[in-house]
Amino acid sequence: MASQNTQKVYSGKNARIIADGDLVGYAQGVSWTEDYGLQDVTGVGSFEVLEHDPTIYRGTGSLQNWAIKNQSASALTNVAPSDVLNADVITLEVYDEVTGNAIRVLEELTFGGVNGGINAGALAQEGHQFRYKRARTS
Question: For the whole model, what pTM was predicted?
Answer without folding.
Answer: 0.69
